[in-house]
Amino acid sequence: MSLAFEIGGVEVPPGASRTIDLKIPKLYTHTDVCMPVRVVHGRREGPVLLVCAAIHGDEINGVEIIRRLTSMSVLNRIRGTLLAVPVVNVYGFIDKSRYLPDRRDLNRFFPGSERGSLTARLADRFFTEVLGRATHGIDLHTAANHRSNLPQIRAFVDDPEADRMAVAFGAPVILNSELRQGSLRLAARKAGIPVIVYEAGEALRFEEFAIRAGVKGVLAVMRDLGMLLERERQGRRPKPARAASSYWIRAASSGILRLHRSLGAHVEAGEMLGIISDPFGESEEPVVAPSAGLVVGRVDLPLVNEGEALLHVARVRDPTEAEERVDSYQAELAGASELADPTEADSGEPNPEAGIPDRPEPR
C-alpha cells in the first residue's frame, strides 16, 4: 500500500483524489491567483504521471483533455499517482494569450528561479512543487495562433523511456524533437524525468478529434506504465510513422494564400501545394514542396507575409503509408464514444463529429 502523497503542503491519502490550489504571484489588483492541481492517488504504489496543459495560455485543447480524463471512473482503480494540471500559465489563460504579462514564453524559462521574473517564478513554482515530484510527464500543446497541427508526439527518442511513452501514446506520427534551452522537456530530462509533448489542433479552439486523440493517448500511456490494469477495448493500432526531422515551407512573397493540401496529406518533391497571389490575381507565386513528407502543421490565415511559415512537413520514410495511418486513426476515433464529452449524454446534445475538419480553401 502506498503512503500519503504531499504537494503544496496538503497530504492526499491512498485511494483519494484532491484538487489543490497552488498559490502563485498575485495580480496587481491584489487578487489572489492559484494554479489548480488535481491529485489522484492510488492505493498501490506505482509511477507518478504528470499531465499538464496550457503552458502557453491560449493552447486550450489540453484543458478539455484533462477534464475528460479526470472524470473517468477508471481512475478509481489507479496504481500510482496522476498529477493533472489543466492550466499551468494561469495568467496567459485568463488573458487568452500565449505569454505571461511580462511578455515572456514560459516554455523557455524552466526550471525557473524563485527570485527571477514573473515567468521565472511561475516556472520555479511548477517545477519545484509539481514536475519535480513526477516520474513521467505528458505536456499537452496545440499549434500557435492561426495555425493547426495534426495529432503528433514530439519526443527526444534517444531517451528509451520517452520513446516508449511516445510509441504507447499511439498518435499517427512521432517527431524526433531536440531539447530546447529553457523548455520543460530539457529541465525534466536533466532531473531524470522523461516527458513527451502531444501537439494537436489550434489555439483558442476546442477540436473534437484532437481532444479524443489526446484522451486516448494519455490512457494508453497509463496502461503501458502499469497504472491502469484494464486492457484497451479496441485492437492494436499500426505503429506510428517516425520522422527524424521536419521542415517548414515558407512564403516566397507576400499576398493571399490558397493552399491545396490539408493536414495528414502526403506531398511529393516538386509538388505544387498552393498559390500566393495579389488581390487581383495578376501575379502568382507557387508554393512548392522541396522534398517528400507528411503535412503535420499548416497556417490557417490566408493573409501571409514573405518568409512566413506555411506548411510543416515531417520527413517520414513512406509518406503514402503515413497518410493511410492518419486516415485509419481518424476512423478509429470517430467511433470512440467512450472518449466523447461525458456531459453530452446528460444534455441530450449530439457529439460533434470526430475527425480532422475539412477546412475550406482560403479565398
- Give the spatial strand order of the biggest sheet: 8-9-11-18-16
Class per helix and strand makeup: alpha+beta
Mean pLDDT: 92
Name the helicity range.
10-25%
Distance between the termini: 61 Å
Regions with little confidence, pLDDT below 50 for 5+ residues: 346-350, 358-363
| Count of DSSP H/I helices | 8
What is the radius of gyration computed over CA atoms, rounded to a whole number of angstroms? 21 Å
Overall shape: it is globular
Describe the sheet with the most strands: 5 strands, mixed, barrel
Percentage of β-strand residues: 25-35%
Count the E strands: 18
* Order of helical and strand elements: EEEEEHEHHEEHEHEHEEEEEEEEHH
List keywords for this structure.
single chain; 363 residues; alpha+beta; 5-stranded mixed barrel; 4-stranded antiparallel sheet; 8 helices; 22% helix; disordered C terminus
Structural features, described:
- There is one protein chain.
- By secondary structure, the chain is α+β, with helices and mostly antiparallel strands.
- 22% of the residues lie in helices and 31% in strands.
- The strands form three sheets. A five-stranded mixed β-barrel has the order 8-9-11-18-16. Strands 15-14-12-17 form a four-stranded antiparallel β-sheet, with no helix packed on it.
- The protein starts with a strand and ends in a 16-residue tail after the last helix.
- The relative contact order is 0.12.
- The model is unreliable at 346-350 and 358-363 (pLDDT under 50).
List the helices and strands and how they pair.
Layout: E1 5-7, E2 10-12, E3 16-24, E4 33-41, E5 44-53, H1 61-70, E6 79-85, H2 90-94, H3 118-129, E7 136-141, E8 147-155, H4 160-169, E9 173-176, H5 184-190, E10 195-201, H6 208-224, E11 241-250, E12 255-259, E13 266-267, E14 272-277, E15 284-288, E16 293-299, E17 303-304, E18 309-316, H7 319-334, H8 344-347
Parallel strand pairs: 5-6, 5-7, 7-10, 8-9, 9-11
Antiparallel strand pairs: 1-2, 3-4, 4-6, 8-10, 8-16, 11-18, 12-14, 12-17, 13-16, 14-15, 16-18
